[in-house]
Design brief:
By secondary structure, this protein is mostly helical. It has one domain. The chain contains seven helices and no strands. Helix 5 packs across helix 7. It is elongated. The mean pLDDT is about 90.
Length: about 160
């Protein structure tokens, strides 16, 4: 994964994450995400799915240009993955909570940045895949040549 639960918590509070993932409304303390996950494993599952989907989106864009998974995760990729994961979480509740403008804008910017990385116009902060060479390598290990300049000079 290119981002984690704690990365998300640096951007939005735990209570918001619980509201975005607790479909069954089972959390007794919606301000404590870890306790809510213990009470309702589906919360953790939904959160993991949003993180995995963000990673899959990044990989989908960068697959042809970089060795995957990116390791270590470049900081900019982590930021983009956070933006994608938060968009995924808010998308689950957009009919109830609405999609915050900053989340929609961050999602659009993340996808645009990933497209630029795919094209090679923006650096992902990781080494790109080496290009495959179509050059033919000559095999020089073998017997000495019978017909050389010296052996053919009388012909």
């Amino acid at each position: 994964m290119y981002c984690s639960q704690s990365d998300l918590e640096e951007v939005i509070d735990q209570a918001t994450i619980v509201r975005l993932t607790d479909d069954e409304a089972l959390a007794t303390d919606p301000t404590d995400l870890d306790a809510s996950i213990v009470e309702n494993a589906a919360i953790g599952s939904r959160l993991s799915r949003a993180l995995a989907d963000a990673t899959a989106t990044v990989d989908g864009f960068l697959r042809t240009r970089y060795h995957l998974p990116l390791s270590p995760v470049p900081p900019y990729i982590r930021k983009l993955a956070v933006d994608l994961a938060l968009f995924n979480l808010f998308s689950r509740r957009s009919h109830q909570m609405g999609m915050p403008d900053e989340r929609a804008a961050a999602h659009k910017a993340a996808r645009s940045a990933l497209e630029l990385m795919r094209k090679g116009e923006l650096d992902a902060g990781s080494e790109p895949q080496p290009t495959e060479s179509s050059a033919v390598i000559a095999d020089t290990d073998g017997p000495d040549r019978e017909f050389t300049h010296d052996t053919m000079k009388d012909f």
